[in-house]
Amino acid sequence: MKAPQLTPYLAFKGNCREAMQFYQQCLGGTLDIQPFSDTPAAEYVPADAQDGVLHSRLETESILLLASDAGSEPIREGNNVTLSLNCSSEQEIEAYYATLTAGGTVTMPLGDTFWSAKFAMFTDRFGINWMLNYDKEATA
């Protein structure tokens, strides 16, 4: 039996499409976006929100990220979720750090830690908190 997978689901204030396209540019993968207008939910959404995102899915070999526009639901950006991305190399963590921090606010710059990892924390330009981690190989 396969273990359950925890998948983050993000809510945005009308800019879900832009955010998910940005994440696809940074992380790669396949992005599927379903607007309200293409679903039965369209009858419950105001005309100016028809192009909003009912559901989106970004998938790579090892990442699954789901998101939607919140519609009329109140959300608070910046503290609604933190995404933790474990990287497989120094090159990978440096590349993700360089792209994901663009336009954002770094709270802990990418650097070596006491737990033998390279680590960073930041809030991206869409108000989403991120942690990047790369566990370095032990030296003998």
Automatic annotation (TrEMBL):
Organism, as annotated: Hymenobacter tibetensis
Ranges of residues in domain Glyoxalase/fosfomycin resistance/dioxygenase: 10-132
Superkingdom of this protein's organism: Bacteria
PANTHER family with a match to the protein in the record: PROTEIN YJDN, PROTEIN YJDN-RELATED
Protein name, entry field: VOC family protein
